[in-house]
Design a protein that fits this description.
single chain, about 70 residues, mainly alpha
Length: about 70
Amino acid sequence: MSGARRGPGRPRRPVTEEVEPEVNPGENMWVQLLQQQQAMHRQYQEQQAQAERHHREMMQVLQQQR
């Protein structure tokens, strides 16, 4: 038997595990789209929270002027 020897800590994996065909080529695109959508949603939530804080501060200023 020729080839590189494996160390005692590395058991030989079955070939089916090593050669795994990509199940769905378009799946990667959907994952990227989902991650992009989640990032945009987080940005939107942060902007909304910032606008809410700004609004509260402005309302406090207006209340103090009366």
